[in-house]
Amino acid sequence: MTIYIQNLSRELDEERLRKLFSKHGTVEKVNILKDKTTGLPVGIAFVEMPDKDEAAKAIKDLNGKEFGGMALNLKEGIAPEEGIGGQGQGGKWNPRAAGGDKKVPGQKGGGHRGEGGAHGGAVRRGGQRGV
Q: How far is CA 126 from its chain centroid?
């Protein structure tokens, strides 16, 4: 099971985090996220524990506890390399679903500013209805 951890101290390293979670069971992997430009930790990490019961107990025992001067926020999560993509939750952008240029049979327009469609007549960022 992957545990998503927020509100980590930026001084925390993988060894200390592994030691903390090892008290609750086997730790397979620790991944502390870092800023791409500065290389500094952003206060978020993922810990993978193969035993679901041990991971669930770790979440229960450590959630809200202070570690490194910060109250940890833990929950079951998905590690970043497991498919959360740049197009939103791993899915592909669909121009038809987004009301793009391609028309769907039976649909009237692009979907904004009075053009018909699923959101016909909706005002976008101060625009006028029906224009």
A: 30
Q: What are phi and psi of 34, to 5 degrees?
A: -130, 150
**116/109 Cα distance (integer angstroms):** 5
* pTM > 0.90: yes or no: no
Please tell me the predicted confidence (pLDDT) of residue 129.
Answer: 54
User: Quick one: residue 75, left, alpha or beta (phi over 0 = left, psi -120 to 50 = alpha)?
Assistant: beta
User: In this structure, are strands 66-67 and 41-48 parallel, antiparallel, or unpaired?
Assistant: unpaired
Domains and CATH numbers, the chain: 2-79 (3.30.70.330)
| Single-letter code of the amino acid located at 71 | A
Neighbours of 77 (CB within 10 A): 19
